[in-house]
Structure of Sodium/proline symporter:
Amino acid sequence: MQTGTLISLAAYFIVMIGIGFYAYRKSTDTSEGYMLAGRNLHPAVAALSAGASDMSGWLLLGLPGALYAAGLVEAWIGIGLFIGALVNWIVVAPRLRKQTEERGNALTIPEYLANRFPNQAVALRVTSAIIIVLFFAVYTAAGLVGGGKLFETSFAGMLPGLGMSDYMTGIWITALVVLAYTMVGGFLAVSLTDFVQGIIMVTALVVMPLVVMFGAGGEGGGSIADVPVEGFTDLTKGLTLVGWISLMAWGLGYFGQPHIIVRFMAVRSVAAVKTARNIGMSWMGVALIGAIGVGIAGRAYTERNGIVVDDPETIFIVLANTLFHPIVTGFLLAALLAAIMSTISSQLLVASSSLTEDFYRLFLRKDASERERVNVGRVCVALVAVAAIMIASDPDSQVLGLVSNAWAGFGAAFGPLIILSLTWKKMTGAGAVAGLVTGAAVVMGWIATGASDGLYEIVPGFIAAWVAIWLVSLATRPEASTAGGTEQA
């Protein structure tokens, strides 16, 4: 059984690496090509790439696991995310696409901020790059944890461990395949693989809950109304106001996720943004409903059939191994790897782009050639991956926990900063730095003190950053030009 599944996964890996080499021949001659695919992404590719890189392993592991453990009340996370993503496409996407090109053809978010506020250019580039690399190391680790859990759960004892556990072997396999196509093909490879992976993910999320409820396993796990847990299908069971705010606040994170908003910078034109938005939001709605269905229907099935699930975050894997033919199981596990790898590759590339453009070129080699910048970017991809592997080495790590911390860090640090830099002409460079530092510091402090057990850390971080930008910008307003909204150099 497991041999057929392994064959399916091997075929999936080959396709992903093949796309990487295709992209290598198309768009890696220049730094703009390597980092943004020449700003020429088709709307459908940009849309599914944004969605797939956004959702990560938490869509098939963390969210279904939360629903499996706590019931329908956890669906508020998905509702908050959908609203946040929609507003992000409407408010941020067209403005960021236009302004990053107009302001010095910026290739990274830190570079855009530096061009927007030249008086604070170095401080903004360095600070934002540090935050990007720091939180992306944690975020990438969350994806690798998902890969480790997949191989540990599905192929226990079958993998050549090389002295490592199945968990660590899974982490290394996941990391090496992602590195293969990301380092070689750059942003175009990441975007094209995201497109394919997005299609695989949404197909799996539609098929699995339907099979659980109505397929061969339906007799044992059909209706989700009979789960023997009080209030399991109640959307408000045990929900407090603070709890509801924390769940809905996940949507605030969208405005500050560099690996998502960089897709807005790469779409072929401002006019194409609307098409990309419609495609992306349709994909996201179906995917979220499917993930919720996996968690709820999976709990119904396992309860009725006496199946013990030690880790709720593995419910998708358990169902894939239990209900499907090995070849189909391989497809479903490929969907999980697609969710994991699409996000990891995006995060590695954005982090390496910041290291290359905002450290290497800024301090070491200002006149680096296009080829040198591409090669340095490849090295930085590998360095960030190694740091993420070290963080992910703890087998007790929880995907949703790691993702929530990194999501909050980016959302609070960059969210208010991006929104206001695009929409408020009175914003100053000093205000930008204040918001960036305040948002990140409040999130990390909130986590360190354990306060996030009550209120999700993105809420105080986002509010504090917004207030800091507003107050400091007003206090330093004489620095700025009232006509153009851009500081004078």
Notes: The first helix runs from residue 2 to 27.
